[in-house]
Design goal:
The protein contains 14 helices and eleven strands. By secondary structure, the chain is of the alpha/beta class.
């Protein structure tokens, strides 16, 4: 044996510990005979392993965020959630005050508007080729179909809304989402994300607004104006950035509930670094602000190196999240959101003794 190298001996039975002595938490078998509700199921899942445990832990943390009256919760959304019929689940989060602001892709809001206005999406079963779908005006989103007619009809409504807006108005995504929500509140009996957000005064931001049917609708509207030599609308995305920053700055405690990744996730997360560099570079107007809580549902693995898969731990290094040693808590669920989101949301609603609105 080399000098200075410590000899490692086989562990002795007398040195074995029982788990409890090191504050390890015992697991429990999932007993379906004791499951009387979704919350019962999710709570038991939290005492199992792998993906089941992550769903249980995510429900625990989202409940903690919802029950904390001082916690301002930001919901970020990406993926085809409304086409996948998750819209009413998101409505439940808004209607019951669990989330206080929404940051989303434009596609989710566009397809959700279609649904809220009373139009339908359809199941795709593979008997039509994509070429046949195109010719028939069927736009495929994995296993679901959005009708081109739906999008045309939604654009016609969008035009009606914009016709009533003063042409000197500098547009932002929050402003347009509020107008869409107002239209639904006045003209549709169906529930919908933008309708719920308008009713509850929850701001909805779409950072990549032009990357959506809504953005294209605005582009078409402006082209119509220009063809008649009329003044087109101006759109300023920095109105959204500064509005969101102002809101987050004044909140004492903040949490983020992320479904998917992409632009909505990072746009919402970067508010902390933005406030920090404002203070550092301008010497006033900024603040040292980080999310204390984070719940994320996303199947993207971290090892691809993309933003959607980056862990909350990685976000700590950017000053976006409070580290565990300072009270920060996070839960990450690597699962399909159409499976995890309804389970987590329903469990939290049951814990809060809330019956979802019909």
């Amino acid at each position: 044996m080399k000098k200075g190298k410590k000899k490692i001996s086989a562990r002795a039975r007398c040195e074995y510990k029982n788990g409890f002595s090191d504050n390890l938490k015992p697991l429990s078998p999932l007993d379906l005979s004791k499951v009387k509700s979704v919350n019962d199921l999710v709570t038991q899942m939290g005492k199992t392993s792998f993906g089941g445990r992550s769903i249980g832990e995510a429900a625990d943390l989202l409940y903690k965020m919802a029950a904390d009256r001082d916690c301002f919760v930001v919901l970020t959304l990406s993926g085809a959630l409304t086409v996948a019929k998750m819209g009413l689940v998101i409505c439940d989060l808004i209607d019951n005050g669990i989330v206080n602001a929404v940051v989303s892709t434009g596609a989710i809001m566009a397809h959700g508007f279609v649904e809220s206005a009373g139009m339908s999406h359809f199941k795709y079963e593979g008997h039509l080729s994509d070429e046949q779908l195109y010719k028939g005006g069927y736009n495929r989103i994995y296993d679901t179909v959005e009708l081109e007619k739906n999008l045309d009809d939604a654009e016609a409504i969008f035009k009606i809304i914009l016709d009533d807006v003063d042409k000197d108005t500098l547009l932002s995504s929050r402003f347009l989402n509020e107008r869409l929500g107002e239209y639904l509140a006045k003209n549709s009996k169906e529930r919908g994300i933008l309708k719920s957000a308008y009713t509850r005064k929850v701001p909805v931001y779409i950072p990549a607004f032009t990357d959506s049917e809504l953005g294209l609708n605005l582009g078409i509207y402006n082209r119509r104006l220009k063809s008649k030599t009329k003044r087109a609308f101006a759109f300023d995305p920095f109105l959204d950035l500064e509005d969101f920053t102002k809101i987050i700055k004044k909140e004492r405690v903040t949490g983020i509930f992320t479904v998917g990744g992409g632009v909505p996730r990072n746009w919402a997360q970067q508010v902390g670094p933005y406030l920090d560099i404002i203070q550092k570079r301008l010497k006033s107007g900024g603040y040292f602000k980080r999310y204390r809580y984070g719940v994320r549902i996303c199947p993207e693995p971290a090892h691809w190196g993309g933003l959607s898969g980056c862990t909350y731990s990685e976000g700590i290094s950017w000053g976006k999240f409070t580290p565990p040693g300072e009270g920060g808590r996070c839960a990450e669920v690597y699962a399909d959101a159409t499976i995890a989101l309804p389970l987590i949301t329903k469990a939290v609603l049951e814990r809060l003794k809330i019956t979802p609105t019909r």
